[in-house]
Write a structure and sequence with these properties.
By secondary structure, this protein is α/β, with parallel strands linked by helices. It contains 12 helices and 15 strands. The strands form 2 sheets. It has a 9-stranded mixed β-sheet, with helices on one face. A 6-stranded parallel β-sheet has the order 3-2-1-4-5-6, with helices on both faces. Strand 4, helix 4 (about 80-85) and strand 5 form a beta-alpha-beta unit. The longest helix has 19 residues, at about 340-360. It is globular and about 60 Å long. GO terms for molecular function: nucleotide binding.
């Protein structure tokens, strides 16, 4: 199709990673960039040859040429900027999480419906090569009946920007909630979570969140499945791990314990010593337009002198960035819901928010709003 979507990127730290992807996507026009710091705005604009530049987000939204905004600002700004954009008649892609409160998640779902615009939370894990590999196994029937799902996200956030210190672990849970809900397109119905251990007092007092680890069970609506997810951000000795595991009646997939090693497939009914075997997850660049296929293997932040902490610790997000951009643009061109859409994004985000509330209440069961009904 020859149609092109005029995209504006908001926030040029991690957000700059997507500029060359949109520039080379056949249905996108990398139209504008927005950054409060003018020197950085101009440096990035000059580097990539982008003429339309804004230091004011409101001015950007007043530009009638902008079709869609891709928000990569700090977490506390996500909900406000998303709501402004939707109400200004712009489609929205936003980095995770959708919001920091259930109330704001509800507002975004309502605003998406009222505006008639599309919303997509740019959850990297559900477009990472490992997830796409498991999804392929599931769709081919090789897993058999899925019996249980599990995910973790453990990370040392020391040295990250000022809105991270002391953050409740489950307030940034979409990287582990997304894959367990996303594989079978399940809707979380209620959650129970326990806190464990304590972080240093100077960190704990920032958000009144004492826990070093939060671990939650998620019950899915209209399904016999539940999932287990756990998170840690501070004062836990662990190499970065953003894992996703699925247990089926025929085959199961387990994430490696150490970064850089291969995952393991377990196959039922084999001799015991043959059940487990390491596998290499293939790349899925062939899902993408040829012009952006090369971005699954490298990006802006692969260079040593231009590294972002999400890449140093996150392993490049499994080649997901061009898949995310392509899904967003394709949904707009085809006039369909992106994955994850607004209600799914709200559901995944609210699992974490309410899991933390559950932990503060000693593991109480907490129901999620019916976001699907609101959409």
């Amino acid at each position: 199709m020859s149609q092109k979507i005029n995209v504006a990127i908001v926030g040029l730290g991690f957000g700059a990673e997507f500029i060359p992807i949109y520039q080379q996507h056949p249905n996108a026009n990398m139209y504008a960039i927005c950054q409060r710091t003018e020197s950085k705005l101009n440096a990035v604009g000059d580097q990539y040859g982008i003429e339309v530049r804004y230091t004011s987000y409101d001015d950007l939204l007043n530009d009638p040429n902008v079709d869609a905004v891709h928000i990569n600002s700090p977490i506390p700004n996500h909900a406000e900027q998303t709501l402004k954009a939707l109400r200004a008649g712009k489609h929205v892609a936003c980095t995770v999480p959708m919001a920091t409160s259930v109330e704001d998640c509800i507002e975004i779902v309502k605003a998406t419906k009222e505006s008639g615009k599309k919303y997509m939370m740019m959850e990297t894990v559900v477009y990472a090569r490992e997830f796409l590999f498991v999804k392929e196994l599931y769709e081919k029937g090789e897993l058999g009946k899925v019996q249980f799902l599990k995910a973790s996200h453990q990370q040392d956030m020391e040295g990250w920007p000022d809105y991270w210190p002391g953050l409740p672990p489950m307030h940034y849970a979409t990287h582990c909630v997304g894959p367990v809900a996303g594989l079978l397109k399940l809707e979380a119905e209620y959650v129970s979570c326990f806190g464990s251990g304590t972080i240093s007092e100077d960190l704990a007092k920032i958000h009144n969140s004492p826990f070093a680890v939060e671990s939650a069970h998620i019950k899915f609506k209209d399904s016999d499945l539940s999932a287990y997810v756990y998170r840690s951000l501070f004062d836990v000795a662990r190499q970065y791990r953003e894992s996703f595991e699925v247990y089926g009646s025929k085959k199961s997939f387990e994430w490696p314990l150490i970064e850089g090693e291969d995952p393991v497939i377990h196959t039922a009914k084999k001799p015991e010593h043959e059940i487990a075997e390491k596998v290499t997850t293939p790349d899925y660049a062939h899902y993408l337009p040829q012009e952006i296929q090369h971005f699954t293997g490298h990006g802006v932040y692969d260079l040593d002198d231009n590294s972002h902490l999400s890449f140093v610790q996150g392993g490049g997000h499994g080649g997901s960035h061009p898949h995310l951009a392509h899904e967003f643009i394709s949904a707009l061109i085809e006039d369909r819901e992106p994955f994850p859409n607004a209600w799914q994004s709200a559901n995944w985000t609210s699992v974490g928010i309410l899991a933390h509330e559950s932990a503060l209440q000693g593991g109480a069961l907490i129901q999620l709003p019916d976001f699907k009904e609101l959409s």
